[in-house]
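Input record (one chain):
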Amino acid sequence: MQWSAGVSERRQSGGARAFAADRVQWVRGVRRDELQAARDALDDSHSFGIVITGERDIGKGAFQTALVRSLAPYMYAQTLRSTIAGAETPYGALAPLLARLPDEALESPGATMRGIMETLAEDAAGRPAVIALETPGGLDELSTATLVQLMTTGTAKVIVTATRTSDLPEDFHWMLTEQRIREIPLELLPEDRTEHVLRDVLGGIVPRTVARLLHAMAHGNPELLYRILADFLLTEQLRSTEGVWTLAEDAESTRSREIDDVVRSRVEREPSDVQTAIDALACARRLSLERLTNVFGAETVALMDESGLIHVEERNTVSLADPIMAEVVRGWLSIPRRRELRALIIGAAEPPLSTLGVVELLGYAAWTRECQTVLPASHAIAAASASLRLYDPRFALDCLEGVPRVRGTWATVQRLRAAAYLGLGLPLQAHSILEQIAEDELGDLAPVEFAGYVETLVTAKRAIPLREQEIAPLLDDARARLLPHAGLTAVPDEETERARAILDLAEFADAVYLGDFASVIDRIEGIEEGRPGWDDELRLRAGCLLMQAQAYVGRESDALSTLHDISSQLGGPAGTPRVRHEFNTRAFFVLLLNGHWRQCLALVRSSGRSTVPSLRIEGAHYEFAAGLALVYAGRGPEALSPLLAATAQLEQGHVQSSLGCAYAATAFAFAQQGDAAAARTYLDKVEAWSAPCSYSIKSSMDFCADMARRWIGERHAAARLVASSREDLGAGRWTMAGIKLLGATVDTGPEEFALLEEICSHRQGPLAELGRRLARGSRLRNLPDLTAAADLAAELELDTLESRCTAVGLDVARDRGDVRSARSLQARLDRLTGLVEVLPVVPQSLGPLLTSREREVAVLAARGESNRTIAEEMGLSVRTVEGHLYQVFSKLGITSRSELAGLL
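The corresponding structure, as predicted from the sequence alone:
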C-alpha cells in the first residue's frame, strides 16, 4: 500500500511538472474564459477581429499563442511581429508576407495590397484567415492601411496585442467604437481563481494557504505565477506529501531567474537617473513625493509617472507601481549600493518617529536591516511593535537584532522578542527570553508596561508543560507590585488601574483557556463602561472572552448577542488588529456551538490575511478551522480536503496546539464517509500526539475522536462520550456536555436521553431545542417531537442530524401504524440518503409489506386498468380485486390510484 501510494505521488508530481513546463497549456487553464470570449468574437460574422490588452508581463504573447493554436485546423492563422525598427519601415509589420510577393506586386501600394490578399487567400485554402500581430513597436502607415483593407474586405480577421487600446493606430479606433473589433482584457487573477487554477494544474489537495501564498508572491499576475510555480516544482520547494501540496520553509524568498531577467531588461531601458530613482524606491518601499522630487528632480518624477513606474498614494507618498519590480531590484543591489542610496535619501540623521506612518516606518526598518545596520532602539521597538500587530513575528525579531542592552529599554525589547517567539509557536524560547530580564530592569518599567510583560509571561507559561501552575502566583505577585506601598505612589492612578485591568484580563484569559468559564464569567460581566482602567480596547477584549464563556456554559443566544455587539464596535478606534484577531478566534467557537457552521466558514474566509508572513504562520489554522466546522456539520467528505491540508502544514510548523484536534477531526471525517481504516489511522495519530492546548481545542479533539470511534463501531466509545459529558456537566459547561451526549445517545438508553433532555433545558438556542426534542421524542416515542427536531436540523443544514431524527421518527410512525407520517418521513429519509454518506441511524421497523397478490393488483391499478380488467386478467372476481385495493390503500396511506405510480 505504501509503495503504490509512493508511485501515485511520483506520477502526480511528474504530471504537474510537465503541465507547468507547457506555457500554452497553462494559459488554457488560467485564461479559459478569456480564450472562449476571443473565439466567440472571431466566430462572429460582424467582427473584424480582437485586440488583447493588458499590462506588461501579464502574458499577452502566451495568450495569443494559445488562442492561435486553438483555432487550428478550422482557421488559417499567420503570426507576425512588429518591432521598433519595423514601425519605421513601410510594410514592416507585414515583412514575411511581402517577401513572398513577386516583383511586379511591389510596384505600387495597390498592387502590394492585392498581392498580400491573394497570398493569404491561397494559404488559407478556403478556410477563414486570421493575422495574429504583436505590436510592441507600433505599426507603420502602410501596414495599418493594408490591415484595415484586409479586415473591411473580409479577407482576414486580425488579432492584435497592445498594452491598452489607445496604443493602437487611429484607424482602429472607429472599429473599437462600433464593436467591429472586440477588446479582450487580461486582468490580474483574483485569489479564488488562483486557487481553482492551481488545483487543476497540480491535482491532489492544494491547501488554500499554499494557493494564497503563491497568489501573494505573484501579486495575482498569472505569467509570474507560472514562472514561480515552474521554479518551485523543479527545485522541489513545492512538493506533494500523501497527496497534499506544501511549500518549503524558505519558498517565499526564492525568485525565478526568468522574472529577474524580465525586470532587469525593463529597468535597463530607462535613463540612468530613472534607474537610480527605481533603486531608491525599491529600497525605501515608499517615499514622500516631496522627498523624491527634491532628490531626483521634478522632470524625472514626471517621466516615471508617465511611464507608469510609480504610484502616488494617500498623503502624497510614492511607491513603485509594480511590487514584483521592487522585490527583484532589492534582491540584486549590493550592500554598499543600498547604503549609498540610504545616505542619498535619508542623510546622516535618522528620521523622527513622529514623521513616519506605519508603512514608512516598516519600510525604513527593512531598508536599514538590508544595509546590515542596527536600528536605533526607539525605531526598533516601534517597528517591532508594528510588525507584531501585522502578524509578522520574523520581521519583528529582525528589527530587534543587535539592539544594545540599555536598562531603560531592555525589558521592552525582550518582551517584544518573547511575543514574536510566541507568534512563531516557540514558547520555550519566549520564556527563556523573558527570564533574562533582571529584577532592576523590571523595576524601571511603568505599570502598564510591567503588566504587558506579565501578560506575555503568562501566555508563555501556559504553553509549556508543568509551568501552568506558576501562573496564579505570578499574577498575585504582579498585583502586589502595583500596590501603593510598593513604591508606585508617584504614578497616576489611571495608569495603575489600567495595569490592574491588564492583569485581570490575563487571569480571565487563563481561566477561559483552561475551560474554567464559571469562575470568571460573573467578573467579566461586571466590567461596566467607564470603570477605571478599562478603556474601550480592554473592554472589547474582555467581551471576546465573555462571549466564548457564555457559549460554553449554555448561554449560546447570549453569546451571539455579545458577538454582534462587539462586531458593531470593531470599526471604531478600539477595533485594533489584536482585538480583531481575538474576536475572530473566539467568535468561531461561539458560532460553532450554535450550529452556525456556514457562518463559521464565512468568518474563516474573511479573517484570513493575504500577506506572505501572516499566511505562513496562520494559514494552516484557517484550513483547520474550516475543516472542523464542516465535520461538526456532518459533512465529512467536504471536510477532508481542508483537514488533510491543515494536518500536512501543521506537522511541518512549530505550532502544535491544534494538531491533535486536526487529527481527530480528520478521523471523524473519514468515519462519516465510511472509511474505517483511514479513521483508525488518524485515531492512532491522536493517541500518539501530546502538546498543551486550550480547553476549546481539547474538548473538540475528544469529541471528534470519540465520535469517530462510535461511528466505526468501536466498543465503549459511547460510554467515553457519556463520561466526558458528565465531566463537563460538573464544571458547568452545559453546551459541550449536551453536544457530547447528543452524539453518545445513538448507542445508549433512556437514562442518557433523560440526562440529555435535562441538560438541554439549561441551554439556549435552536441546537439546544433540537437536542431536547430529540431526547424527549426518542425516550417517549413521541413523533411530533422527533419531527420538530428534524425540522430544526434542516433549518441549521445539519443533514446528518436531520437523518437521525427522521430515521427514529420513521420507526415510531411504523410501529404505531401511522402510514401517512411514515410515508412522508421515508421520502425525507430517501432524500437525505443522497446527501449523507453513512446514516448515523438506520430505521429498524419494516414498512407496510404488500402481499404478492396485493402487489400484482396494485401494479395493474397503477397502470390505469379498471377493476373489471384486472379481475379478468388475474382470474379474480371484481369484489376480490376491490378488497385487495382496499388493503393496498390502507397500508400505503393513500386514497387514489394516481398516488400508486410513485410508490411502486
